[in-house]
Amino acid sequence: MNDFQAIADRVEIEALRGEFTDAAMMRDRPRLASLFTPDGALRMPNIPVEQVGREEILAGGERLQSQWDFFVQTTHPGTIVLDGDTATGRAYIQELARALDGRQGLNFAVYHDRYRRTEEGWRFAERVYEVRYLDTSPLAGTAPRSARSAGTGPARTAATPPSAPSFADPAPAERLERAASALRANGFAVEILDDAAAARARVEDLLPESAVVLTGASETLRLSGIDEDINTGGRYDAVRPRVLAVDRATGADEIRRLVAVPEFVVNSVAAVTETGSLVLASGSGSQLPANAGGAAHAVWVVGAQKVVPDLDTALRRVQEHALPLENVRARAVYGRPSAVNRLLILNAEPQPGRGTVLLLREAIGY
User: Fold this and answer.
1) What are phi and psi of 69, to 5 degrees?
2) Conformation bin of residue 234: beta by default, left when phi > 0, alpha when psi is -120 to 50
3) CA-to-CA distance for 43 and 57, rounded, in angstroms?
4) Is the overall model pTM greater than 0.70, yes or no?
5) ω into 241 cis (within 30 of 0)
6) How far is CA 304 from the centre of its chain?
7) Burial class (CB in 10 A: 0-12, 13-18, 19+), 191
8) Are 207 and 264 in contact (CB under 8 A)?
9) Residue closest to 124 by CA, chosen among 133, 111, 137, 115
10) Helix%, strand%, coil% for the chain, nearest 5
11) How far apart are CA 8 and CA 5, in angstroms?
């Protein structure tokens, strides 16, 4: 290989890295996916994301993109080491981002790259993203709405309505009432309460002393204090402490029986629709039987931000909002990411009086 060919290869690889950033900024996910070999991989362990093949990179990129309020990436030149039709290198990244759920920050990162010469030109065989610095302090600036077409979101003109509210925003009163009316029509008992403190008091009213009660793994219950009231207060026959005391290696059957048919289950949901459905998501599925009908009575405490128009939006909320936040919690608590392996959709309550939805006017949980 002569010096001119080496120079040409370096220029093309540098252009490939610039094209990646431009496609990300312009939200052109098909173009971004095409910059990888058909079996290429994009790995971002800190998120965590691992996408292999152009289809996964395209689908995964669209999921990430849908979470952005704005995203700005700058790529700085790094190293390139040529080895015939393959090469390795590093590119240095600075990013500013704010997600629709309020997460935001500034970071500096490194892409550790492998490149391959193909009939289409140089392509990424692998990009591995490593964060070297992260600052999650509130960002002072914002993306001008007129700049949305420059990579921070879809272009919007005066005739185009503003983007939909974030999945973290509490629904206004009229939407809460609409959801409550639909739920009641579908057989659920519904109460609209001001806040988590009111829900905490109401749960105590609904649960008789000494009742056998299972709590779901719910940030809403934890943050409201309901989980602590039930599982450590001594007022109830709480299932969760009994489950934690069983050896999981030898007592799997006992655990399944304990969580499947309690007298009461108290939980939250991932979404409630204005058409009157509840949507629950789970990694293991262990808590779903009680919610589906195994428990004689069910109480669901639901923050106002979980109200969505319909089931399609509910499923988007699960994947785009709840799962990324649950991933963070699961990695901190269990040392591994979460997943939506089981979905439960309750379209109606066929047993009158079994299920009660406490719908709050404030946002709580995720």
Assistant:
1) -85, -50
2) left
3) 10
4) no
5) no
6) 17
7) middle
8) yes
9) 115
10) 35, 30, 30
11) 5
CA geometry: angle 270, 272, 278, nearest 5 deg:
80
> In the block, which residue shows the tokens 């090469």?
87
| DSSP structure string for 325-362 | HHHHHHHHHHSS-----EEEEE---SSTTSEEEEEESS
Tokens standing for residue 42: 């994009």
Alpha-carbon distance 20 to 295, whole Å?
Answer: 51
- The C-alpha angle with vertex 250 and arms to 247 and 252, in degrees rounded to 5, equals 85
**What is the phi-psi region of residue 153: left when phi exceeds 0, alpha when psi lies from -120 to 50, beta otherwise?**
left
pLDDT tens over the chain, length 366 residues: 568 899 999 999 999 999 999 988 888 888 899 999 999 999 998 878 889 999 899 888 777 777 777 789 999 989 999 999 999 999 999 999 887 666 788 999 999 999 999 999 999 999 999 999 999 887 776 665 434 334 444 333 333 333 344 788 899 999 999 999 999 999 999 999 999 999 999 999 999 999 999 999 899 999 999 999 999 989 999 999 999 999 888 988 999 999 999 999 999 999 999 999 999 999 889 989 999 999 999 999 999 999 999 999 999 999 888 888 887 777 777 777 888 999 999 999 999 899 999 999 999 998
The whole-angstrom separation of Cα 347 and Cα 276 is 7
List Cβ neighbours of 359 (8 Å cut-off, separation of 6 or more): 176, 179, 180, 190, 191, 192, 193, 272, 302, 304, 307
Q: Which residues of 280-302 are buried (b: 16+ CB within 10 A; e: fewer)?
A: bbbbeebbbbbbeebbebbbbbb
Alpha helices in the chain (DSSP H): 3-25, 29-34, 54-65, 173-185, 196-206, 219-224, 226-232, 239-245, 252-260, 288-289, 311-317, 323-334
* Count of residues making up the chain: 366
**Residue with structure tokens 């069983």?**
246
Instruction: Give the number of other CB atoms < 10 A from CB of residue 18.
Output: 13
State the Cα–Cα distance between residues 366 and 167, nearest whole angstrom.
9
Which tokens hold the place of 100? 């629709």
